[in-house]
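Bench notes, afternoon.
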Amino acid sequence: MGSSARPALPFPLPRPTGRPCMRIVALLVCHLLASCNTIETQPCDWGIVCPPEKICHAPTQTCVLAAQQAVCTDQPEWANCAYPGASAGTHFCRNGLCVPALCGNGVLDQGESCDGTQLLTPYCADIPGGGYRAGVPGCTAECVYDTSPCWEPGWATLETNGDRHLYAVDGTASGLVVAAGLGSTVQVLDRDSGRFIPLDGFSTICSPGNERLQALDLTPAGDRLLAVGDACQAYVARLDGAHVTSCQRHTLCDVGPPRRLKGVWALPDHSRAWVPALDNRLYVYDDASETWEEQVLSYDTRLFGVWGRSASEVYVAGDGGYVLRWDGTLWRDLQQPLTTEVLQSVWGPADGTEIYVVGDEGAVLLRDANGWTDLNSDRIWTSGLGWRDVRGAGDSDLWLVGRGGMVAQFDGSQWQLQWISPFNLEGVSLSEPGGEVLVVGGFGTAMRYRGRYWSEVTWEETMTLRATALLPDGTLLAVGEGGLAIRLSGATYSSTAPTGFSPTMLQGLWAGERTVLAVGSDGAVCTLDADLWSCAQNAPGISLTAVSGREHGDDMTAVAVGSSGSVYRFDGSSWTPDDTFPGVGSLFGVWMDPDPIPGDAEIFAVGSGGAVWHYTAGLWQSVELPWQEQLDLYAVTGSASHVVAVGDVGEVVQLDRQADHWTRTSIGHQPFFSVWLSSSSPEGFAVGQGSPVYFDGTAWSVMAPTVLCKGDPWPMRALAGTSSRNVYSVGDKGCVLHFTGRMPAGTSTTP
């Protein structure tokens, strides 16, 4: 057989690298098939062959898409890039190629905004060009910021389903918010989109007419809804989340002309409900029998608002200045003597005895143990301003809405008035102190207020402040650099140098009714007696970091902690070391339960490596926390219900004292240096290197943007307060901040 020339291969043979038989077979097949010499592949000098859709890339010795290389030609390293199938923001130029970032490895690589729990910027306020002032961002699967949790404190307009008037709004602590209005519209706030959408199933299952719905009431669990309105229509619906599962429609006025129903209030489980009508009638709903009872009052008044604390304490307000109370047996006139105006709404704190009533011509009335008080006696609001609704979350967090788009907030001592809409506002809802406020009104108006503000207390000094306490007379005492005692009262302040020993830094401060103690560097212990600020060196070489105490009758006791496991006790006259403490690590925070029970006090101390120590019944014990990674804890405090410690990288460690159960939360990624809990409500705050956070008794949340003090976000080191609406924080550069829960100033108070 004669020989013939073998056709040249369109690429050089690859170097032998394993499984040679398979390569020989492949080459023989290619030799026999005429189509082999038409395959548009590309051989690479390093011994691989790129498929037709890719080209060789020498710097990485890989096959790449031509577009990957083209978009990065003449581009610097880490330049943002994109090509078909790869979006900008997730791809960057590396070695002349457009490649994905190293997303998903839990490490912040160059070009990534975040990766898992790692954030380049821990607060929304610090995202470049974001335009946000509050919140903590999340992280997407592409390692870019998820800004959906970010928000701007203040009032924001929410989109609603159409422009029909909204007359009522109610919400739950879990976040369910429902609004009702003209044309039997019932809408629910969609948290993902931030807009109101029709409540699923209401129009089909409840079969409403076209009347105006004027009032509604949600159970705290959000599983039941009562809505009432014109033509004596009432709807009793069961909910599963934002969906109606069953509904009953009732016509309450069987005899006489159709009446308007302006209000509704129900017991928390909706077993009974009260609905006033625009005449002298009320309708009482009994859930067990699913029936309504009509009550005809002997008072000649139209009835508007209704609210209650229990089945034997229900209030209604009406025209002519009438306020009536149901005591479980009879309706009684409370004989309010201050106004004869129409009173539109009534509300009171659930755990109190007082009520607030608002109405036309700016009427704002308070009834408490001292009788009736006109809270607008100085007429800070002009005549013609009518309030339509009042709700609150306590005596220091009261909100009013009314005609002309006006809203007012009362912080327990002062009112602040804002004009936020050109349309009348009809309803207001808020679920907890410090939480969001929802208002609704004319032409589909829905607005949300989020955030509370800390205000800077202006004074001249710039020394570092490490600890603070409020004295019985309301004076704020702060200590820190140079051992000075700083007293601030209103707009005035004084600075007192210590007598005796002069510490470099005071780091802990505690104030009782009669005793004030401070501790600091080089074993410093200080006391305040009237105007005498005296210090002594009690433990040379020891840095004392925190002090806490209690007073019980004529007795008092205190404890101080510090470096190298140092614990010292104070008996009212002298300090002595507590040799029973078994630890050796540094302690940074201590809290002594002030409960005036005779005998040894209960104490919690925290420190390096996440150490938590508990002293009770004369014995110190280390608390074994149910997690492995433990970060330094810098401060601890407590209340009747909780003990809370805070520390590095946003660490919050919390004991539920009733359940005897510890939990752990991480809020942001900046350290917290101080924590404070209210003794009168289940609330608290923590501050540190970043935004303050707020505790509502259940969960912690970032409550405000990073606070600027003296023009910069200096670290805040300590907290002190008398209530959740009177809290101070001190920190570096002489920063002093005050929290009252009031709305920010600066919004116009007239249309």
